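Q: I have 195 residues here and want to know how they pack in 3D. Can you give me a structure?
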Amino acid sequence: MELLNKYLLTETWYLNSEIRKNLLNHIDKTKKHNILEIGSFEGLSACGFSDNIMDHSETTLDCVDPFIISGTHDKITTKMVTSYTEKMFTNNINLSKNGNKIKLYKQTSDDFFKTNQKFYDLIYIDGCHEPEFIKNDIDNSFKFIKKNGIIWMDDYGGNTTNDGKIKIHIDNNLKNHENSYIIIHKNYQLAIKKI
């Protein structure tokens, strides 16, 4: 695959992701889009956006990632891993087609949304999988997504929360927004459109 040869990566999740395979069925790449990505890791999904849907001169992508590894890593290992991950992200963005339209916010999504004033056409949520962050990312995305905008959530079918119930947490939080969206994709990932 072309992406494997072009970019530095340790994980290939994005290559088989549903957003990569299906996004162009729901978005017109010739139009201007403000895109927000929550959780960028090595930047492969951001590069996918950059290479495939960001050709319009006014399209932008804001990436939010604190580059903090959560878990029980010792401080030295964590610092080395996060430093390398961020360098990979920067390298990959610089290699991407429209990397000059991408801005990194090195902070948590909670902190980002406290000062954000921009509204988005597409928000891709692939951030922290703890229940509190899932709730906050969904609620904040609804505040800043435009009408007919898409919120696309990764790992909907996964078991990556501490209690193994990410789908239940997403579904429960979406109940707070009933009648304000329609589901446009539902499998391992979930995508909704604001109405």
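Q: Anything worth noting?
A: The chain has a mean pLDDT of 90. Strands lie at 34-38, 60-64, 102-105, 120-125, 145-153, 181-186, 190-194.
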